[in-house]
Design goal:
alpha/beta, 13 helices, single chain, 17% strand, 354 residues
């Protein structure tokens, strides 16, 4: 049996084969060689083990193929490792898919979070009080149309099945912290972008379609505003809150980059023109029928994490976007490996005839 005691701390990261999780594990395994990082993931369509090459090459990484909807398997895993902390990223995240089939979001985002909380509570004994860090989204607050930005005190007003399930999970975490005196923290973040993001999301979708000279779909008039953050900056924020955040508190992580979807896609096309020549690829942008309940604006106020934990993003938006586009163009094999039957079926269902 492997000796877990050789490591100073044992941390379970759920959903570690996904976009944010793979970036986080690359970051944490390098920064904390004395930690054991356990990736707990069931490898859904959006997971990609090719994204974990850096983490898997390090001796402090382990993988457990477990679905967070399987309470017994989670309990067994937690008993095996007796983790000092859990960073909970596992979730169904794509709004469009939640509209088409909300049932999977209920099972994973709500029931899965419940299972993880209960497993964490079950090992809280003999002085062990694991930190449970729940990763959430700004979408739980609904649309912000007053010109202000979401703070940790903003009211919850979710407008999509995805947002509603994440809001429910947030409330579960807070309630378990209050009722059972668990060591919980929650972070709410805006739109992430960067390496290893599945191409149903806006930026990699624009890149792959532009590479293939296909129309780039843009919902409605493209004026929906999102608050964008480079994934590596988000990972630094997660690390900081996990280690230094006050138990029971919530922290917004944002980089103050409010941009409309149309502007994002245009910037991506212009960067591809600059790197590859040709174009203008912005002529591929094609407006499509908007999705139901599409929030017009999200905006994050990160003042709390800035003042209390001294976090600041290290990357400007322009620099991060340049790095992101360059990464996808240099890793086209990774990008095309995502274009399986699941992706093509989803794409056809989502955009055909709109």
């Amino acid at each position: 049996m492997e000796n877990w005691q050789e490591f100073e701390k044992k941390i379970i990261v759920t959903g570690g084969a996904g976009f944010i999780g793979s970036n986080l594990l690359e970051y944490l395994t390098a920064k904390y060689p004395h930690y054991l990082l356990v990736n707990l993931d069931c490898l859904t369509y959006a997971a990609n083990q090719k994204s974990l090459t850096a983490a898997t090459s390090r001796p402090n990484y382990r993988f457990e193929k477990i679905d967070i909807r399987n309470a017994a398997a989670i309990r067994q895993c937690f008993e095996k490792y007796s983790p000092d902390g859990i960073i909970h990223l596992a979730a169904e995240t794509h709004v469009d898919r939640s509209i088409a089939d909300p049932s999977e979001f209920i099972k994973t985002n709500i029931e899965g979070t419940f299972n993880l909380l209960e497993a964490t509570r079950s090992i809280a004994r003999n002085g062990l009080r694991p930190r449970f860090h729940h990763i959430s989204t700004d979408e739980v607050f609904g649309a912000e149309e007053t010109g202000e930005a979401f703070t940790e005190e903003s009211k919850y007003y979710p407008n999509s099945p995805y947002a509603a399930t994440k809001a429910a999970a947030d409330h579960l975490v807070r309630a378990w912290g209050s009722t059972y005196n668990m060591n919980v923290v929650t972070t709410n973040c805006g739109n992430n972008f960067g390496p290893h993001q599945y191409p149903e999301k806006l930026i990699p979708l624009a890149i792959i379609n532009a590479l293939d000279n296909r129309p780039i779909p843009l919902y409605g008039d493209g004026s929906q505003v999102r608050d964008w953050i480079y994934v590596r900056d988000h990972c630094r924020g997660i690390d900081l809150v996990f280690h230094e955040g006050t138990a029971g508190e919530t922290y917004n992580i944002g980089a103050r980059n409010e941009l409309a979807n149309a502007a994002i896609v245009t910037k991506v096309c212009n960067l591809m023109d600059k790197i590859l020549g040709g174009g203008p690829r912005r002529e591929l942008i094609q407006k499509t029928a908007d999705r139901p309940g599409h929030d017009r604006r999200y905006a994050i106020d990160p003042s709390k994490i800035e003042s209390e934990l001294r976090w600041q993003p290290e990357h400007s938006f322009e620099t991060a976007l340049e790095k992101t586009v360059a990464w996808y163009l240099e890793n086209r094999d990774w990008l095309r490996s995502c274009l399986n039957d699941n992706y093509h079926e989803y794409y056809k269902r989502q955009y055909a005839g709109r």
